[in-house]
Amino acid sequence: MNGTIFTLRNLYRDGTICLEKAGIADAKLDAWYLLEYETKISRAMFLADPDKEVEKDKAEHYRKDIETRAQRIPLQHITGEQEFMGLDFKVNEHVLIPRQDTETLVEEALKKIRPGMQILDMCTGSGCILESILKFAERKGICVSGTGCDISEEALKVAKENDSRLQTGAVFIQGDLFENIAETYDMIVSNPPYIRTEEISSLEDEVKLHDPWIALDGKTDGLYFYRLIVKESVKHIKKGGYLLFETGFDQGKDVSALLEEQGYEEIQVKKDLAGLDRVVMGRYNKE
């Protein structure tokens, strides 16, 4: 990536080549996103004038971004942003980067939303699940309230900043699962750590090296946190309340069994857009 004159075309070409050599799967896409991020151009603008000269400082920032991405640093850690449910969220190395798969959990929760509900998001991370539920409920004219809980103080800083952006009025509590939770809720949602410990080493470098381990590791069988949350949830869920989990593609049956053991009814497993089991939910009808 040498030369003193920088054009959109040349920067994009060289950025793509650099990322391809580094083995980045979506090299062209990532090179484009970074070009868009640094120059604020649209694809239409690029196509209309690909030989437009780029200011030296912007070009240098782009080249630095490309070099960083080539080291398998996640794109979202470079831009500090990730879109989820059509909303923009701040992210960093302290939170799990929101995935499209998780939108299934939000969509299923929104189907159950009723006015006046109190919602708890356990293991909230960036707050993307809770914030999305609250924001879309607001757009529907449904007034609900939400609390997010996480053990990580750094993660909660990110969640609070996202709440400041979206203005949903969520409350955040630091604690190890339910240790600091005193209220009862109409709905509990959670995307807990569920990757089996031995499988983490086989994940992409962007995940295993840069997502927080605490947000990934579900212990030996991946079910450790599901067991704890399901068992404790019955003390914090109102009669008729819903518990909804994101799960791994092969965990639907096991998590469903955990809910049944604790007295949950109307248990369902929902699939994501890829046709894989992604959400397990149940309703608690006991006093």
Q: Strand order of the main beta sheet, please?
A: 5-4-3-6-7-9-8
The Rg value, from CA coordinates, equals 21 Å
Oligomeric status:
single chain
Helicity, as a percent range: 25-40%
**Largest beta-sheet characterization:** 7 strands, mixed
As for the number of domains, it is: 2
Q: Please work out how many helical segments DSSP would assign.
A: 11
What is the name of the CATH topology of the largest domain? Rossmann fold
State the fourth-level CATH superfamily of the largest domain: Vaccinia Virus protein VP39
Q: In one word, what is the shape?
A: elongated
Based on secondary structure, the structural category is: alpha/beta
Number of strands: 9
The average pLDDT is 97
Distance between the termini: 67 Å
CATH C-level of the largest domain: Alpha Beta
Order of helices and strands: HHHHHEEHEHEHEEHHEHEE
CATH architecture of the largest domain: 3-Layer(aba) Sandwich
Low-confidence stretches: none
Beta-strand percentage? 15-25%
